[in-house]
TrEMBL record:
UniProt KW rRNA-binding keyword: no
Membrane-topology annotation of the record: Multi-pass membrane protein
Protein name (Swiss-Prot/TrEMBL): BCCT family transporter
Segments passing through the bilayer: 31-51, 71-92, 112-133, 161-184, 211-237, 249-271, 283-310, 330-356, 368-392, 421-440, 471-491, 497-518
InterPro entries: BCCT_CS, BCCT_transptr
Annotated family: Belongs to the BCCT transporter (TC 2.A.15) family.
Amino acid sequence: MSKELNARADANNATKASEGRALRHPVPPNVNGRVFLGASLGVVALALWAILSPSSAHGALGVAVNSIARWFGGFYIALATAILVFVIGLAASRFGTTRLGSPSARPEFSTFAWASMLFAAGIGTDIMFFAVAEPINHFMLPPTADPQSVQAAREAITWTLFHYGVTGWGMYALMGIALGYFAYNRKKPLAVRSALYPVLGRRVDGIIGDIVDIAAIMGTIFGVAATLGIGVVQLNVGLELIFGIERGIGAQIGLVLLAIAVSILSALSGVNKGIRFLSQLNVVLAIGLAGWVLVAGKSDFLVSAIIMNIGDFVATFPLRTLETFAYSDMTAWMSAWTLFFWAWWIAWASFVGMFLARISRGRTLREFVVGTMIIPFLYVLMWIGVFGNAAIDLVRSGDATFAELTLEVPELGLYHLLQSYPGASILIVLATVVGLLFYVTSADSGALVMANLSSFLPTVSDDAPRRVRTWWAVLTGVLTIAVLTVDGIPALQNATIVMGLPFAFVMVLVMIGLFMALRDDAQRRFSEERSARNIVTGAGATSEQAGASWQQRLTWIFKNVTVEEAIDYLNRVAEPAMNNLATHFNGQLNATVVRGLDPEVTELMDLTPNREVFDALSLLIPLDDEPFMYHIIAVEGPMPAYGGPFTSAGETTIRLEVHLPEGSQDYDVMGYSADALIHDILDHFDRHQDYLRLRDQQFAARVEGMGALEGLPRASHLARGTRENLRAIAERLARSGKKNNPRT
């Protein structure tokens, strides 16, 4: 290690020992220039085209949608089904027990709090619009049944549940698992490109990764714009009924500007907690609105209808999920409904997936899939079941005007329905408030996600700089206004179908990359089980190797270790032992010892949020295929309960926890002798070598099974792509000479 780095580490360690402050990651969030400029230029160009030449943009959108429906309609249907089968398969398979985070990670939020956030994720302004407009459309203009028949009524609700149901949430689950797994388990950035490391290797750090993130941003911004556009036309009706504000593009632009203002205020003033509170309050208001319609309306009919809807949905789901209407001329219907919804879900997948990943650390994949696909759908079922059935019942009761009005001006449907209930004026105000709050919170969250996707974020909990968030808030508003001027909601739907297509192909690669990574981890666990040794207190050393009596070990187990004692152990025992081992390794391998939380090593550690980290010591060995990394992290933790009467509630101690690239090993090496520590490192190194041998043997067998492919690299070279980024970090540290000398 250079003198400057040595001095910095000494100063940092001394400061942390004396003041007890946690070491923090020194790298601030920063803009990814290529992704930011590429996505921004693309959005600006499309927005200018729509504003300056709306007729040309409208015609081009129509041609593009017709072509996509013809050539890629089946692809959208097949992809949605494949993703659903994939995530359900993950949950049901051996991979279902894999946690987002290290094996010892536990959920940050309680099950109730997590379920509440998932429930809120299923709510938005758009479902207020489609819960009435779509069932009426399918009832009056059904794809297969006779118009206004009982069969059409049943299919109308079932189609709406299908479009808002588990298929779309399967897409969200895929992106949430992929983003969370590669961020928490593989220590990659919380970005879409990270999920493609097993497929593309280090190429995702270059232009290919930039293209992937640009596709994610483009899909997200058009998905958000579609939601905001639907929201403004819906809210415009409510404002007209309450305040007499005339419906039209002027009022809609004003609503878009309001969303931009709220997003900028949230970014610049730090009122995020207030925004979150409004979002949570809105969930209660929305449930109250649906509850009033249920209680004040035909309660017995609505409950019976919802039960029937569930049966119809379950019975017809396998047929609908692969329905392409190949023998019918239903291209226009498919484009307006199923293809639009699948493209819309795909466009929002990065957005919602990032949210799901952030709240789900410590959950198993099985918990994640079950929770994500069931809990939000309960809200969808409740809302569509109440409002959709109530709307169809109103038409069947003789209100033909309501049906005609909803077909011609879909945004009028919800408000016209509410006018048939007691307290209509209050319900209209409540619906407008609920829609407005969903609208502004969606705009604020969308700007944050797009800012994060276009930035380098040191940790999962970091957010992009405020100026970037402000820019995306403004650009989203401009795009929404531009597309609304072309043809209103139909133009937004068409644009979503077009812009969702590139990211649809990315999601195929995400499935492949996630499966490869999970299979890779399964092979690692198998090799560790096969290489298991007789261990003492979690280490790989035998009692003869430990060099310390069991009485000495017991003393450390019950002792409340201070920061000074932990750092003294690292100075006197651990670091000299690692340097001694590195010296012997360097006859064959280029081993490097790094002291402190080096920025290039921090991202490889499994640092649990809200735990103070006081020091770190790492051994890095850049092997041919995948580097070996062994970290000792001085971290604050609770005193064990077996401390007895001398242990106070909430008392903490310092643990020297062992971390490998796959996460914390959940044991403490404080008090190990130098020999015991070296044997523990060698045990892990031996298991790592065994894992590499097993992985290459299995990969070579698969390649041989494919036949002799001319020019195909050997298996170890193909496998190398999944870890090249780790290897590069280890080699870069080694070349820079970041090796600490033993300190006395």
